[in-house]
Amino acid sequence: MIALNCLNEHHTGMRGFIRLGIVLVLVFCALPAAASAVSITLNATPTQAHIGDIITLNGSVSGIKTIAVYLFVTGPGLDPRGVTLENFNIPAGRGLFTTSPVDLDTGNWQYQWDTSITLGEMRPGKYTVYVVSSPIDKQQFEGGDFAKADIMLLPSSEPTTAIPLSPVTPVIALIAAGLIGCGVWHRVRKE
Q: Do 16 and 44 sit in the same domain of this protein?
């Protein structure tokens, strides 16, 4: 009977040790996952600007080591997936993004968005800039790591002016058209 109790206690002690080992493994596996939660921030300055202004976008990335963040924008008349900040005609995704390098020591990044050189039609209205840690567009978000900032773009503060033509330009165009017409008529007549 005494030997049997010792075996039972030993068996129970071993089960307890195995249970403790499993709990410790689970705790140690969960700690790195909790400690490495990815965090991304995005600040836009100014948040209200005129078309043609420069907007400073900056932020930080923590929880991962990455060399770049990916930026795209949504807004009036743009593809709902988002577009690059340089060219509103190019949908974000498939490797086409605006990128900004990340300082590996601090995790900080910065991008100067010059709206005066953005290709495509930029209309006044509310635009939302997104920053993501991996190259995905807006439709691929599944609670992933991203940050966003709203920017209100007002009409350009610079009035659009037509470039005046020299009064000589229509005369030169008329002379050129006449010479080309005469050349064609002369060639057809020879044949």
A: no
DSSP output for 115-144: TTS-BS---SEEEEEEEESSS--GGG-SS-
Closest among 142, 74, 184 to 84, alpha carbons compared: 74
- Position 167 in a domain: no
Identify which of 149, 125, 3, 156 has the alpha carbon closest to the alpha carbon of residue 71. 149
Instruction: Classify residue 178: in a domain, yes or no.
Output: no
Residue 95: domain span: 39-154
| Cα–Cα distance measured from residue 127 to residue 57, given in angstroms and rounded to the nearest whole number | 13
pLDDT band at 4 (very low <50, low <70, confident <90, very high): very low
Structure token digits, residue 78: 């743009």
Q: Is residue 174 part of a domain?
A: no
158 — phi, psi (to 5°)?
-90, 125
Query: Rounded to two decimals, what is the model's pTM?
Result: 0.65
Give the bridge partners for 50, in sequence order. 154
Domain match, 1 and 77 both: no
